Amino acid sequence: MRLGLRWPKQADYQFVAEGWSIGQKLEWRGPSKGAFRPDSAIIRVILDDEDARKHQVLAVLRIENRKACLITAIDMTANKQPYELAQQAADEKAASFVCGKSEAAATGEPTPWTKQVLE
What we know:
The chain is α+β, with helices and mostly antiparallel strands. The protein contains 2 helices and 7 strands; from the N terminus they run ββββββαβα.
């Protein structure tokens, strides 16, 4: 499954994450002064291996004006408090992350599963 975002009057989707499945919730993040304008989002990417085991990775996305891209990936099993790591990464990295210029990297313990999401 691939997750893509598309803005009005834009023909193509921008694919930002791919896995066996995508979680059912998306958490919008952004500064809360004045009207809320999200600059990032957190989603769950579910991957499977040859033993049919499921692995879960949180993907933090940067949301720019008519652009979206991946900031970081956090393995939910390899890291304690993965949601807090994802929220901290979104809050601290989104404002300075530039889609197409900045490079996405794992947060916390890197694993083959975070690497797969980052590819």
